[in-house]
Design goal:
Helix content is about 15%, strand content about 30%. The protein is an alpha+beta fold and about 80 residues long. It has one domain. It has a 3-stranded antiparallel beta sheet with strand order 3-4-5, with no helix packed on it. The protein binds zinc ion. Zinc ion binds next to loops.
Length: about 80
Amino acid sequence: MNSKAPLCQSLGAFFIGENMVTIVNKEPHSSVVKEVICRNCGATLSYVPMEVKEKTYKDYGGGSDTERWIDCPNCNNKQGVKR
Ligand SMILES: [Zn+2]
């Protein structure tokens, strides 16, 4: 009596049926990688949007201004970027 085979088959069907996002390549794609020259130390930095830090300031007129930057790993300078 073999009771294990049917269990394996049903598990396989379950995983195939899962609708999951598949990672094809974890390296950032060149279409999203950006480069900036650090104005403090001159290093060329490449970054992806996820690494951009931002802070929104509200001015007295009701408008707002968003500052975006990345931290230079070479000199810790806050390098402003446009995103
Ligand atoms: Zn720097």
